[in-house]
Design brief:
It is a single chain. By secondary structure, the protein is α/β, with parallel strands linked by helices. Helix content is about 45%, strand content about 5%. The protein contains twelve helices and five strands. Strand 4, helix 11 and strand 5 form a beta-alpha-beta unit. The longest helix is centred in the first third of the chain and has 18 residues. It is elongated.
Length: about 300
């Protein structure tokens, strides 16, 4: 990235990057289990279901549920898979979340804990995830200088509900659903740039997952890494190597702080828009590769 050709659009991964899925999903599962166990109809629950529902770790169950999503999207991310299945056969994340919830409950001997309506409602909790505390205020400020857009594997209906619930001021909602394939398929990144009427080099992906950023980079995107607790799938060694190689254009680590105790997107906002902050002064500590990037840009730098 250079000051001559800064990104015109910031495209955001959503789960883990903008919203804290783990806390919301874990709480919902635990709360709904407690309601089921203490409802007037609870004596009708099979003893085994009652036992397993009382002793299971719902945060661990939430992680298993999330892991099925990763496996599902990875299996449908190759261009050949997307082409062979066609958009008409595209299975949405909503559909997957419901199907995988039913399957996981069966695997944990919990079938019958919730009825069909309750299962459907719980599977939709992904529409109402709470944001990280830095997300909404930073996006509102960034929206004054950038086109803000989702670029998520979640389906459009889910993303619209999430944007409303979490107060995320996106200019556009873009989903893998639009392109009939899941990230990291090049079809998603290239399709997003085309949809926005921009060159790939005019787009920057913001994500908490280096695999997503690597795929975007290979399609010509600029890259911004926002580290979140327990979100990175790469090993410590792989993360360290990526940082040393410098192919991430802006690197926001957990150690970075600009807004009181906040980091994340608050730090991204500060590096882009904060008066006198210096943005990039070059080097790994400032965010990635050799040389300064975006140095000295103010809030109006996209006006021309």
């Amino acid at each position: 990235m250079s000051t001559i050709n800064p990104p015109k659009a910031l495209l955001f991964d959503v789960f883990g990057t903008l919203v804290d899925w783990r806390t919301t999903v874990s709480y919902t599962l635990s709360h709904q289990a407690a309601l089921a166990l203490n409802s007037p109809s609870s004596p009708s629950l099979p003893p085994a279901v009652r036992l397993f529902a009382s002793t299971i770790s719902w945060p661990d169950f939430a992680q298993e549920w999330r892991d099925t999503y990763k496996s599902f999207t990875k299996a449908h991310s190759s261009p050949s898979t997307a082409k062979s299945q066609g958009k008409s056969a595209f299975k949405t994340v909503d559909q997957h979340n419901y199907d995988s919830l039913v399957r996981l409950l069966a695997e944990h001997n919990l079938t019958g804990l919730w009825d069909a309506d309750q299962l459907y409602s719980i599977s939709r909790i992904w529409h109402f995830l709470d944001p990280w505390v830095d997300t909404s205020p930073a996006l509102h400020d960034l929206s004054k200088s950038f086109v803000l857009c989702t670029l998520s594997n979640a389906n459009v209906a889910l993303l619209r509900d999430l944007a409303h619930h979490a107060d995320l001021p996106f200019s556009r909602i873009l989903s893998a659903e639009h392109f009939g394939a899941y990230k990291p398929s090049p079809a998603v990144y290239n399709g997003a740039a085309e949809h926005l009427g921009l060159q790939s080099s005019q787009c920057a992906l913001v994500a908490a997952h280096l695999g997503d950023l690597k795929a975007a980079r290979e399609c010509g995107f600029q890259t911004i890494y926002v580290e979140r607790v327990d979100e990175e799938d790469w090993s410590v060694e792989q993360v360290g190597q990526a940082r040393r190689e410098g192919w991430v254009d802006m690197w926001i680590g957990l150690e970075d702080r600009r807004c009181s105790a906040l980091a994340g997107l608050c730090e991204v906002r500060g590096r882009f828009l904060g008066a006198g902050s210096g943005y990039f002064n070059g080097g790994i500590g400032a965010g990635g590769g050799a040389g300064g990037r975006w140095e000295g840009m103010g809030p109006g730098f996209l006006a021309s």
